């Protein structure tokens, strides 16, 4: 697979592949011409794409001639407009592979006299994927630089892989929630209700992608500082990189973001406190507007970060409120006006959400039912920070 994000590819980079005699590999293949409209051409591209998806993913580069197993020379494509060619290829893949492969990306790269097309195929966890040929089904995989049929044991392992990885993600989340609730993590939160987000990419659990923690530590950790933290810092630990408010934390952190080596992300923040609502009257309150905004924007940030790090395909999303029994949900317009909606259990943990593809998820569609579920844990009808008609996130004012 090419190292660069698709949007950074240009003719100069393609020419460098040729000048350096970049070799083909299990995740990279060069082809002189794009597939035509004949049935054998359709079968060939479906076979190539399914094989990559069933193995480790990779790139197919159309418009570079292969010579002796390496990039030889750019051969610009001129047979049809680039947009038309990509639409046709997408239609062939949709019709010829089942189940549909999530997260395939294509980009044309302008070259002197024409263009090249790079087709990026993610390692899939919805498979194994087969090629449909009339009434027959064929399962294939990459073996070095060639394509072979999958054995019975390989097929069985592929069918079991997604379920096993999903279960591992759920166990990871459950274990982390237990540690956070009992303040046994390396960075315990302050006492009180705790808002927790987990986003776990399946590709990371499978060992197919990791995060460059050193780059985040030195360059981009500030992107994970909360706007209300008043600054912050970062600390390595055995699991990954902890990003937290600065200064001494005698009673625990107010909030933190934890980036795990597998690409999993954990966000935590204090979600309530005992507040004076009138002279001589105190109530334990969870701040509902802040809660909605924390969950929504943390998940949005995490999805964007994973895409920037090159993760694709499925992930498991979890939101939770821990240590919340007896706390009321503050939903009045004024700070001192609270409903009598009270949590009836120590922890509010909705069922995890399985995300089919990190690249294509609608954050509003994903977050609304999760936040509705949390509000209903306090006895409220729904989260008031989504437009009831359109379903879009529309946080209240004040």
UniProtKB/TrEMBL annotation:
Residues 24-150 form the Schlafen AlbA-2 domain. Keywords: ATP-binding, Nucleotide-binding. GO terms for molecular function: ATP binding. It holds the Pfam family SLFN_AlbA_2. InterPro entries: Schlafen_AlbA_2_dom, Schlafen_AlbA_2_dom_sf. Transmembrane segments: none annotated. This is ATP-binding protein. It comes from Roseateles oligotrophus.
